[in-house]
Amino acid sequence: TYNELWAEAQVELSRLLVEELPEEPILPQKDRAAFFQTVAMLYVRYLQVFRQLEKVYDQVVHPQKRRLVLHTLEGVMGRILELKNEMVDKELCEYHYMDDVLHDLKLTPADLEIAIPHYFLSERSKDNRERTVTKSMSQDEAIRIIQVAERARQGRLRAALNEASRRLSKIPMAEEPKPSDMDRAAVRIQKFWRGYVERKKAKAVRIEDMTFLGMTPHPKYQAPCEAIITADANETAIRNKQREHEDDYQKAVTEIANHLLEVEGQDIANNMKEQIRQWFLECNLTGVFPDFPDDDEGGSAILFAEKDYEEEEEEGLVMLPSAFLADLETCNKTFVFWETRTESRNFNQRHEVELIKEEKRVDIESEIRVKVDEQMRQELADWRLAVEKDFNYLGTTLRQNDIEPMPSLADVRQLISLYGILPLSHVVHEKAPLTKAILLVGPAGVGKKMLVHAICQETGATLFDLSPFNIAGKYPGKSGLAMMLHLVFKVARLMQPSVIWIGGAEKMFYKKVPKEERAIEPKRLKKDLPKSLKLIKEEDRVLIIGTCRDPINTDIKSLCKMYTKVILIPRPDYGSRYLWKHLIEKHGGKITSALDLSSLTKISDGYTPGHMIQAIQQVITKRRILLQEKRPLTAIEFVAPLAKFSPVFQEEEEALKKWYAKTPLGKKRIKAAAEREEKLQAQAKAKGPAKKGKK
Fold this sequence. Notes:
Pfam families: AAA, IQ. InterPro entries: AAA+_ATPase, ATPase_AAA_core, IQ_motif_EF-hand-BS, N-DRC_Component, P-loop_NTPase. Residues 672-695 are annotated as: Disordered. By secondary structure, the chain is mainly alpha-helical. Among the domains are: 434-570, P-loop containing nucleotide triphosphate hydrolases (Rossmann fold); 575-652, Helicase, Ruva Protein, domain 3, CATH 1.10.8; 663-694. It is built from 27 helices and five strands. It has helices at residues 2-20, 32-59, 63-91, 99-105, 119-131, 139-170, 179-212, 219-222, 226-284, 325-339, 353-387, 395-400, 409-421, 426-431, 448-459, 468-471, 477-494, 528-534, 556-562, 574-577, 580-586, 597-603, 609-619, 622-626, 636-643, 650-660, 664-694; strands at 437-441, 462-465, 498-503, 542-548, 565-568. The chain has a five-stranded parallel sheet with strand order 2-3-4-1-5, with helices on both faces. Strand 3 (498-503), helix 18 (528-534) and strand 4 form a beta-alpha-beta unit.
């Protein structure tokens, strides 16, 4: 089943590569809308391939197939990120509306969801297991550590005994207790005992309430059913088989590589030397020996690689060069081996020896080439001495009518997946566009903090909290602040992938600090944190995420200089507010015909998911759940609790949109729109006199 799914994904990937890597260069497009349509179509198609390959990699047990699928999967993820950046650069907006593309491809909005690969967390747990492996030590070292610990224990014990003896020497002889003292002691003992009993009862009641609200599972449902046990057993068997086959594969790779190096190594080196000497002779016909390429440039390998011809640049819109298409093309060619391979005799899905030999020959050639190049550089120098003596749906329609639509929460989730989750993958991070810091801007209660935790959950990232309220009073002084940032970024690199969260990010860039917040020193990190941000290198999977609810009174220039990606999170639209159904069911409510969800969704315009949860918690109590059979839930019950909260008004949302227009990306978009308007006006004026002449 999964081999067939892999084949389907590869067929679609082959079509995409033919379109993106044609034999003749692609001409620039003049029409911006047509160019965006092309990029959006590629983006959606790559996304479907990504979803299929992720399923295949999670279930296939053959070690070599898994490697090829993973390589292809990471290449597709990287290409998705490149196309996303392409759309942002050309449309000058983080959010895009591809309803027309979905219609053309006969897909649904659910097909645009980014499926977080399961192997992200499995790799994270594997890294943790490797970190916990203890290092072996000699017997003498172990004895020395035990002796040091025992001496310290004895010292602490002697100090405690000395302190106790000093106290006893100062205490007078105890007198016989009086009856009144005994009564007070009995009352005190009773007081503490009753408090203990009451706390124990309260804890039992709290556990019962949490079980009733669905926050903890009921004891009778904690034992998994037979189907779940079977599914878990199958999943465990697959994972164990994957690890077993991977271990066998690694052993075979080492053995085969050593054998090839011993048997074929000398012949490979001699062939390389002859090829390079021939190049020396051909170049010397011009009268001058060539410069030998450095190892950083690829060494002698670049001399015999196929060179792409360069075309003159034409005015128009073209896509930026891709770092992933070459890898995808290589993976696509390798897939032919498996497509034509009959595996009826390989029922256990063990590794293929011949394929290992082909792959290791490439690695061995690279290893040998370094040594050969070193020898040939010296030989070239000798030749020079002898001869010469010296010498780099609706959104589309609205934008077509110059109306900028507000993004939905689904659009926000897409951006979080593209900017926050996929780039934290090890291989994708190496070649994908580097994003060091993201700023989430939106009203209170829209789920900014939840998105930060979602990124950590999906990627297995380590979370560091540098919010002003969290670091207030910690590591005081300039030296203390420098030490704190040094420790945080050092541990973040060691425990990568890592997320450094800054709640209330606007406080760091206040123009004027409010009196009530001066005690926490909100601008404490303003100078040092951007400097630390520059120290994050391309290989560091460390992401800084700031959450901000009121950016209007901040220094926008400094804020946007630190956060290269600004994601505006709006108040929920009608489709996003249909979340009522999920939240009510989660809290134990039952959806019936008496509950008009459509009306409830409509009247809750302006309210955030945080408001919805609080209203539901007030309505769906333990007693109300018991009464649902006789008196079903109705929409009117949620109106009164919801009305107690202040909604996010249209004015607040418009103020955020105006602020976003002042960001670098917003300014570019406004400038591009103005240039298009001037161009249209100039074209209209040019046509005007011609029409009058005809009349």
